[in-house]
């Protein structure tokens, strides 16, 4: 998921989105297509997956209503595809004739990684040469990004693996986090720099949509990064089920990124590190990409409290959600289409640029 449901999104938005979805957090109501989905016969020739696009939630149906994280991908690649039910996965998998497959995995680390594991192990698919594009909405610190930004992940860090304690039990101003021994192999992942370089080369000039409401909302923040127009960028994605919020915890997330030798923390989300660990155990991480669009800031502006920002009054929320989910697909599809179109050069691994 994305941080639309998670970590820096106001509670009022979450409630509204849940009512629109008509379901519990992390669950997408079954579409008519999903209801008739059948499991692919084990004896059938498996789908040779070239690119797998993972979204974390959809607000309603896969097409024809308000778009969540999956709808634009579905409408681009799978409107005529038959859903393939995978036992253990939250939602069906869709594949087209070009080997582009995708699914809604569910929000949060356990939900999404359980779906990914079930899909990877299902004999209906051959992932031996697949690339993975993990997508969704997210939050960003106002010192590093703005509403509508689309950011390629360079590092993925698990925010929840370590020791924490109450700030009042610490030296004033010092971080209240310490890494725990034993998590070294899965608390951080560096994504393939060559693959990230390709992604930026192909998508950096993508025209991004914006909205009047997002433009107005940005002006509440003094940071130059927060007030600018949205752009395509790169940086560390911080994965955590914990809904961290406010300048203090944002600073702590940046501290963790530097502690682990990663790039600047620019995106807060809930799934990428966990999904990547599942993929790593089966196929490695050389072909994994993480792409997130910022729909909120991870803290309030200097004139509001953290709680007020988490639960704003009507009309006080950031705009730009609809534009950002569209931006994510516009940016990411450039990479997907390039890989598929030039598959002979990509199937054996990331080619030199």
Structure description:
There is one protein chain. This protein is an alpha/beta fold and 353 residues long. The chain has a single domain, classed as Nucleoside phosphorylase domain (Rossmann fold, 3-Layer(aba) Sandwich), CATH 3.40.50. It is 32% helix and 18% strand. It is built from twelve helices and 13 strands. Strands 2, 3, 4, 6, 7, 10, 11, 12 and 13 form a nine-stranded mixed beta sheet that branches. The protein has a two-stranded parallel sheet with strand order 1-5. A two-stranded antiparallel sheet has the order 8-9. Helix 8 links the parallel strand 11 and strand 12. It starts with 10 loop residues before the first helix and ends in a 7-residue tail after the last helix.
Mind sketching the topology for me?
Blueprint (H helix, E strand, L loop, with lengths): L10 H11 L10 H4 L11 E2 L2 E5 L15 H7 L16 E2 L4 E5 L4 H13 L3 E2 L4 E10 L9 E9 L4 E2 L12 E2 L9 E3 L2 H11 L8 H7 L5 H4 L4 E8 L7 H13 L5 E5 L2 H12 L4 E10 L8 H5 L10 H21 L1 H4 L7
Parallel strand pairs: 1-5, 2-4, 2-6, 6-13, 7-11, 11-12
Antiparallel strand pairs: 3-4, 7-10, 7-13, 8-9
Helix pairs in contact: 4-9, 5-11
Sum this structure up briefly:
This protein has helices at about 10-20, 30-35, 70-75, 110-120, 195-205, 210-220, 225, 245-260, 270-285, 305-310, 320-340, 345; strands spanning about 45-50, 50-55, 95, 100-105, 125, 130-140, 150-160, 165, 175-180, 190, 230-240, 265-270, 290-295.
């Amino acid at each position: 998921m994305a941080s639309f449901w998670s970590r820096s999104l106001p509670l009022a938005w979450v409630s509204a989105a849940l009512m629109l979805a008509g379901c519990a957090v992390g669950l997408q109501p079954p579409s008519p297509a999903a209801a008739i989905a059948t499991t692919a016969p084990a004896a059938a020739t498996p789908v040779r997956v070239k690119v797998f696009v993972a979204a974390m939630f959809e607000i309603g149906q896969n097409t024809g209503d308000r778009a969540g994280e999956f709808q634009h991908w579905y409408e681009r690649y799978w409107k005529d595809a038959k859903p393939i039910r995978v036992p253990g996965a939250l939602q069906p998998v869709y594949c087209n004739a070009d080997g582009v497959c995708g699914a809604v995995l569910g929000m949060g680390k356990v939900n999404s990684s359980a779906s990914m594991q079930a899909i990877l192990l299902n004999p209906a698919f051959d992932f031996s040469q697949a690339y993975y594009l993990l997508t969704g909405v997210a939050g960003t610190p106002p010192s590093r990004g703005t509403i509508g930004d689309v950011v390629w992940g360079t590092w993925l860090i698990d925010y929840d693996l370590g020791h924490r304690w109450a700030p009042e039990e610490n030296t004033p101003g010092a971080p209240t986090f310490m890494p725990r021994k034993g998590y070294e192999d899965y608390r951080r992942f560096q994504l393939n720099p060559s693959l990230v370089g390709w992604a930026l080369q192909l998508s950096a000039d993508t025209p991004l949509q914006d909205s009047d409401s997002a433009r107005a909302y940005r002006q509440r923040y003094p940071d130059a990064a927060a007030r600018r127009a949205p752009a395509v960028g790169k940086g560390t994605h911080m994965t955590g089920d914990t809904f961290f919020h406010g300048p203090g915890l944002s600073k702590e997330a940046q501290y963790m990124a530097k502690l682990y030798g990663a790039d600047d923390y620019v995106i807060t989300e809930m799934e990428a590190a966990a999904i990547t660990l599942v993929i790593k155990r089966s196929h490695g991480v050389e072909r994994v990409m993480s792409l997130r669009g910022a729909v909120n800031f991870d803290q309030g502006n200097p004139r509001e409290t953290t709680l007020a920002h988490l639960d704003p009054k009507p009309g006080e929320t950031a705009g730009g959600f609809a534009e950002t989910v569209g931006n994510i697909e516009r940016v990411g599809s450039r990479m997907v289409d390039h890989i598929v179109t030039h598959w002979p050069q990509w199937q054996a691994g990331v080619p030199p640029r």
